[in-house]
Amino acid sequence: MEPRIVNSKEKKIVGKRIRMTFLQNRTFELWSRFMPARKEILNSISANLFSIQIYKNDFDFKNFDLNAEFDKWAAMEVDDFSSVPSGMESMIIPGGLYAVFIHKGPASEGEITFKHIFGKWLPQSGYTIDRRPHFEILGEKYKHEDPDSEEEIWIPVKQMTED
Question: How far is 32 from 125, CA to CA, in rounded Å?
């Protein structure tokens, strides 16, 4: 499973966020709040949904703590922030390099793809994690638990330097 490396421009995002841990996963709660309200986002640039994770700068991706807190967003990309619905927030995902993987299969099997990314691909890639948001794009091929479902996993990376 090889990614494509993308130099992404910044993305303007509007949505809802919640603080959680991997052990206290509140993803269902977040999306249950966001999905009925998403139609209030009037200036989205597509129907794609974004699932965004923002980790603290000291988050350890090699030996991560299941109780470490992070912010998770359910959101859509917009062309500007002129119309942020009540109860939602805005943010900018900074531009930069991303390794973009395709996860095929049920969302519940995403852990397999993430283990490959962080356990196998990343250590051999010549890249390291960059401290920017991680996200998944849930586009028209995303079908949640369907075996034919597909989603894009965007991992922020930077070239390793020899220090």
Answer: 37
Output the pLDDT for position 44: 96
On the CB side of 157, how many CA atoms lie within 13 Å of its CA?
Answer: 23
Quote the distance between the C-alpha of residue 112 and its chain's center: 16
CA separation for the pair 129, 127 (Å, rounded): 7
Q: Quick one: pLDDT band at residue 144, thresholds 50, 70, 90?
A: confident
Q: Domain residues for 143?
A: 4-159
Mean pLDDT of 51-58: 91
Who has greater pLDDT, 32 or 64? 32
- Give the residue, 122 or 111, on which the prediction is more confident: 122
Phi and psi at residue 69, to the nearest 5°: -80, 150
Q: What's the rounded Cα separation, in Å, for the pair 137 and 107?
A: 12
Residue 66, domain CATH:
3.20.80.10
Alpha-carbon dihedral sign for residues 65, 71, 74, 77: negative
Q: Determine the length of the chain.
A: 163
What is the number of structural domains in the chain? 1
